[in-house]
Every structure is written in structure tokens, then in C-alpha cells.
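Consortium newsletter contribution from the modelling node. Members have asked for a concrete example of what our holo predictions look like. Here is one, prepared for the S-adenosylmethionine complex that several groups have been discussing at recent meetings.
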Amino acid sequence: MSGIDALPPLREVIATHDLSARKSLGQNFLLDLNLTAKIARVAGDMTGSDVLEVGPGPGGLTRGLLAEGARRVLAIEKDTRCLAALSEIAQAYPGRLEVINADALDLDATQHLTAPIKVVANLPYNVGTELLIRWLTPPSWPPFWQSLTLMFQREVAERIVAQPGSKAYGRLAVLAQWRTEAKIALSLPPEAFTPPPKVSSAVVHLTALPQPRFEADQKVLEHVVAKAFNQRRKMLRAALKGLAPDIEDRLIAAGIKPTDRAETVGLEQFCALAREVAALP
Ligand code: SAM
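And here is the predicted structure:
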């Protein structure tokens, strides 16, 4: 027995199924089930929700989600070695865990989920930011998910919640904060994982807002912000050259000084600039 359920402790599961961690798959496992249950609780009440988990590995967080009452968990795992361990969890929670052996970057998980949906994952670091950007930029808003509760390297977590004027502020902060409420919910030292990664980690909780904070076309905003931060040390009149023939006037109309740099411009001003650019003939 291992505390939160009747399944064997994770060290035993890893030994039984020979799940030595592979760096190429971003494998740093959480073996403390009290910690995984704590991470699951960050997502709030899951009793009426489906939960999408990417990269369950040996299933520590999966067990936390199920023990905390998730209605159903859909877990997408690329590593076939983990499937036997995950199937033991599915047997312990009949009808509540579905595991798909796939690359999360190739699979449309929405086909396998019923709303309301929460996403909770200790993401593989190599695909974490890519997945976050996809979840933040769906074809229409609100997205398929109500909230995202995601483990990141501390440095990436700080970029998501960063405010203008800070070094971490950039494209990720603007994209995340435009349409979600984003906060760092937990910080974890390297020793919380097996094997320990080189850096600290943090769990970020993002709640989808019903509507964007400020009006803007998603594609135009993404383009403006990417261009602005691509040369973050340059004044915006130079960094955004080519975006519009009269870019200085557009910046002024959006309430931005042409001599400002991207890192000092707030979300509201970026959205105003995106509207100015979208209005171009
Ligand atoms: N959730 C487990 C835990 O907390 O102990 C494992 C987390 S580990 C950081 C990341 C997991 O994602 C590994 O099990 C790895 O095999 C899996 N993974 C890596 N790339 C993936 C991908 N593209 N699609 C799905 N799973 C992937």
C-alpha cells in the first residue's frame, strides 16, 4: 500500500516494469504520491470533469488525479514501456482511466474527451512550451479546456506570469495573460524528481477567461508580439519596421511611444497595436 491508493509504491512499479528514466523523452518522474495529489488539487474540483494528462510515465500524477476524484482521465504516453504500469492503474479505477499510446503533438485529444475538461500534466520539457502555445492559440475561444495545470522549468513558469518591465516578460506572457488568469501555484526543487533535473520546477495554473481581456485578432496579435520581441532591445519603431508603412503613427495611435522597447509595453497596448495593424487597408 502506498497511502493514496491500494497500488504498489512507485519505486516498486518502476523496478517491476524496468522503467529507467530516459533523457530523450524528458523523463523526470514524481514518486511521492502525496506531492502528486497536491499537484492534482491545484486543478480544483475534478469530480465533474474529464482530465487530459500528457506524459503519465509510471503514473504518479495519474494516481493523484484519480485519487482526488477526477471523473475520467485520458492519459497520452509516448513510451510503450509505461503501458503495463498504467494498465494496472486503469484496473484499480474501472472505467475512469483511458491510456493512449501516442505522441501528444500528433494526436487530437479532443476526440476522446467530454466537456468540461481540465488539463493537468508534468510535461516533458522538450515539448512543454510547444503544447502550451497550441493550447493557448486554438482556432476559437473559449478553448476546449477550462484550466491548464502544468509543470514547467521554473524559468518558463516565470515567463508565463511575467509583467512588463521584467526580463522574463515576452511573447509567452502576452499570449498567456491575454485570455487566461495565470499564476504560479507551487515551486518544486530538483530533488522532488527522479532523476533530479538540473533546474527547479514550478506548477503553473491557467484558467481560461470567457473572453479575451482586450479585443484583438489572434493571428495579428501573435505576429505583432513575435516581431516586437524578436528584437527586444530595439526601439519598436525599428523592431516593427515593415509591419506597416506608417508604423510610427500606428504606435502613437495605440498609445505607445515609437522609442519604447517591447519589454515595457503592456498587454492592453499590444492589443491596441494589433487593432491598428488589422485596420490597415
Ligand atoms: N507524469 C509523470 C510523472 O509526473 O512522474 C512523468 C513525467 S515526465 C517529466 C514526462 C513524460 O512524458 C514521460 O513519461 C515521457 O515518456 C512522456 N513524453 C515525452 N514526450 C512525449 C510526447 N511527445 N507525447 C506524449 N508523452 C510524452
